[in-house]
Design brief:
- Strands 2, 3, 4, 5, 6, 7 and 8 form a seven-stranded mixed β-sheet that branches. Strands 1-11-12-13 form a four-stranded antiparallel β-sheet. A three-stranded antiparallel β-sheet has the order 10-9-14, covered by helices on one side.
- Helix 6 packs antiparallel against helix 7, helix 6 (191-200) crosses helix 8 and helix 7 runs antiparallel to helix 8 (218-227).
- The radius of gyration is 29 Å and the shape is elongated.
- The protein is an alpha+beta fold.
- Helices cover 34% and strands 22% of the residues.
- The protein has 18 helices and 19 strands.
- The protein has helices at residues 17-20, 99-103, 140-147, 150-153, 184-187, 191-200, 203-216, 218-227, 230-238, 242-250, 254-263, 266-275, 278-288, 295-298, 312-321, 347-352, 376-385, 406-413; strands at 15-16, 24-26, 32-42, 51-58, 61-66, 70-74, 77-80, 96-98, 107-110, 115-118, 121-127, 130-137, 161-163, 167-169, 305-307, 331-335, 341-346, 390-394, 400-405.
- The protein has three domains: 15-169, Roll (SH3 type barrels); 186-291, Alpha Horseshoe (MgtE N-terminal fold), CATH 1.25.60; 305-413, Roll (CBS-domain), CATH 3.10.580.
Length: 428
Amino acid sequence: MSTVNATASQAPPILHLSSVVGSPLRDSDGEQLGKVEDVIVRLGGTGYPPITGFLVKVAGRTSFLGVDRVSDIGPDGVVLRKAKLDLRRFERRPEEVLLKRDLLDRQLINVEGARLVRANEIELALVAGSWRVVGVDTGPRGGLRRLLPKPLGARIATGDFLDWACVEPFVGHVPTVRLRVPHPKLAKLHPAQIADLVEAASKREGEEIIQAVGDDDRELEADVFEELDDQHQREFLEDRPDEQVAEILSRMAPDDAADVIGELDEDRRESVLGLLPVSHRVKVRALLGYDPAEAGGLMSPDFLLLGASTPVGDAIEAVRQSNIEPELLTAVFVASSEGAPEGSVPVTALLRGDPGAPLVQLVKHEIPSLSPDTSFEEVARLMADYNLTAIPVVDEQRRMVGVVTVDDVLGAMLPRGWRRRFGLLGED
C-alpha cells in the first residue's frame, strides 16, 4: 500500500486521481469489497482542499464513504479502517465537489497567469495528516496516463504541474458551490485580464465569472464590462432585464456606457437610458449624438478645467475632491479669460509646484483643441505631434465639452480582439 509521510524538508509524493478512481475498495484484511468511483473534496476554505469522502460502488449500489473511515489511499485501492462497512447515501454538503465528475477534463482559471487551463489530471497528497488536492496536471501526460492501463499509466510522471493555490475551478454546474472571485490573487487581476478570461471561456463559464464578480464587487463588474469586446457585451446583456443593464451602465464611465448602449437593440435603448441616474443619462445621451469615429465619439465628458489665476494649492484640492477616474485625471486644463482651454498642467507638476503660484505659471505651452467632428486620424496626429496624453474637445463657442485620452486613441487604433493573448485558451 502507498503510505505518504510529509516532512518540512521534502514534498509529499503525488498520488494521481486516475490511479484512485476505479481502484478497489478493500477491507483491513485486503479483501476487495467494491470499487472507488469518485473522490469528494470540500472547496471554499484556505489552503489545499481536503478530501471528505469517496463515492464507492458495493454490490451494485453507489454510496458515500467518509474519509474518517479510511486508513489508507493508494494506487492499489482505498482501505477501510474497520472491518465493518457502513455506507451512506451520498448527498452533497456545502462546498463539496466530485473530482472526476465536476473538475477533471474541465477548464480551470490559472490565477497566476490569468489564463484558462485544462485539468488533464488531478494530483493528491497527504499533507499535515490529511489527504488533499495539491495541484493539477495541465499537460498531455495527464490525459495520456488515463488512457493507458493503470500499470502503464503509473509509469508516466507528472507533467505540467500547477499548484492548486494558483487555481480557481468553474463550479456553476455544482448546486452547492460558487466561483470564488474574491480569491486573493484573482481579485488582484486587472479588469482587462478578467475580461480576457471571460472572452476565452465558454458562454456559461463567462457568465459564471461575471456573476461572481458582480456578487462581490459591483464596481469591478462594471470595469470588466468596459473591457469586454462588443460581441461579449451584447451576449451578456441581452438576457438581463433593463434594470440590471442600467445598474451596470451607471457604474461605467459615460463614454464606455454610451458605447454599450449603442450595441443594444434600438427598442431597448430608451428604456435603459430612462433608468440611468439623471446626471449620467445627460452625459450618455449627449455622447450618443456624436460619430464614434470622430473626436466627439471618442471623448469623455469628465475633465477638470480651472481658471488661469487659480492657486496651485487650490488646484491640488480640486483634484483631491474630484470624482473623475484617476486614469482620466492625469492633467488639469487651464482656461483663458474667455473660458476656452489654452493649456494643461500635469498632476505631477501641480504636486511639485508652489502652492501659492497661479496655475498659468505652470503652463509650458498652448495646446490644440479639437472640434467634435475632428477625424480620428487628425486626433491621433495632433496627440503625437504635441506629445499629449489628453487633448480637449470644444464646441463652436470654444467651450470645453470633453477630453480625448491616449487610451481612447489606442482603443480605436487596435484591431478587434486585440486584447486576446496567444495561449489564453486551455489546452484540449
